[in-house]
Write a structure and sequence with these properties.
alpha/beta, 9 strands, about 10% strand, elongated
Length: about 375
């Protein structure tokens, strides 16, 4: 054969007991076929006997061990494994035997025959399923976690860790920034594959026999952070607006609480309205700096806070002016001052977002190339 056809990338950490079982099953599936293959064990220095196990297996099987000491984590391990792969099609799967090796051929054929650009081993299509030993709460957790990912990619199982793509179609490394363990979702979102070129093949997901699950609360929180990044990548402006509104809603609660507190102490309502704005605008600046526009270039905190505070004067004037005019000239708002308060905030939000987007948290200026 002129070239290697299939590279199977297996990220590992503490899987010394599972690796021999997985390699043997992969070989049983592929050894009597026309497909040439290699197995890449991408290990995060497990601290067990993984290295020795792989050295012994490499004498009998086409296996390579990639020992990773930096930037450890499942997603970077997969990316590094794909980077050194030499096969035309790259298939990623877990080491714990939860993904059936028997489905490797189904995935590889779709890729090598160019009937699909990205193939996912799916638990949630007809013919697929979950291990019967799974408790109901684990099943429910999987379903709930899958729902927000389906907005990003139109698949029944967008979170599957069993997937394949052609090595030539791997997206540029500089646009990849996965957090946690859902590297398949990262590749799907950033690869730009057309919907009709993405396929799912049914798999029966089995629970591990040896070792411990890597699913922790930290990994679940990382998944939420990863989702936020991917949503921002897919719909940057809309997500910025939604996050800005979310931050503004939290700031509004602080604003209203301070306003009502000052009123309770007998402060004239116009003065109370002015004073309550200060802690709210500081709170909004901090959250917008770290969340809404956190992906943009960071500037010195004090200088940016001062600029944000001064810039917010425009929004404050709009908010306070709307409140003052409404309560002075419209009897309804004078009788329902809290509604006038909220109306002013809505007007100010438009000014504040435009100032934040275009000036205070502005994007980096592209460098001119000669």
């Amino acid at each position: 054969m002129s070239s290697l056809q299939i590279s199977i990338v297996v990220p590992t950490y503490g899987e010394e007991k599972n690796i021999p079982l997985l390699v043997d099953r992969i070989d049983n599936v592929l050894t009597n076929t026309d497909y040439s293959y290699e197995i890449i064990i991408s290990d995060d220095v497990s601290g067990d006997n993984t290295e020795q196990v792989c050295q012994e297996l490499a004498q009998r099987f086409p296996l390579r061990l990639l020992s990773r000491t930096e930037n450890r984590g499942l997603s970077p391990a997969v990316i590094d494994g794909i980077t050194i792969a030499t096969g035309d099609a790259v298939i990623v799967m877990d080491a714990d035997l939860s993904h059936p090796p028997e489905k490797i051929i189904d995935i590889a054929e779709l890729l090598l025959k160019k009937e699909a650009d990205f193939v996912v081993g799916s638990r949630y299509v007809k013919g697929g399923g979950l291990d019967e030993s799974w408790p109901w709460w684990r099943w429910l957790n999987s379903i709930i976690a899958t729902l927000p990912a389906r907005w990003l990619v139109p698949l029944a199982d967008p979170m599957s860790g069993f997937f394949g793509l052609r090595r030539a179609d791997m997206p540029a490394m500089e646009i990849l920034s996965p957090i946690g363990y859902k590297i398949g979702l990262e590749l799907l979102v950033k690869s730009g594959f057309r919907k009709e070129r993405v396929r799912e093949v049914p798999i029966l997901f089995r629970d591990r026999i040896h070792g411990e699950s890597k699913m922790t609360l930290r990994e679940q929180l990382n998944y939420l952070r990863h989702l936020r990044r991917l949503y921002h990548y897919r719909w940057p402006k809309y997500i910025e607006i939604l996050q800005f509104l979310a931050v503004g809603s939290c700031g509004l609660i602080i604003d209203i609480a301070c306003y009502l507190l000052l009123i309770a102490f007998g402060t004239p309502h116009l003065i109370a309205r002015a004073c309550s704005y200060v802690p709210a605008v500081t709170f909004n600046w901090l959250l917008n700096r770290t969340m809404t526009f956190g992906h943009r270039p960071r500037r010195p905190q004090l200088a940016q806070w001062l600029q944000y505070s001064v810039g917010s004067i425009v929004g404050f004037c709009a908010s306070w002016g709307t409140y003052a005019l409404a309560t002075q000239y419209i009897s309804f708002f004078d009788e329902h001052r809290l509604l006038a308060f909220i109306t002013g905030v809505v007007v100010a939000t438009v000014f504040n977002f435009l100032l934040s987007d275009l000036l205070i948290f502005r994007k980096a200026t592209p460098k001119n190339s000669d």
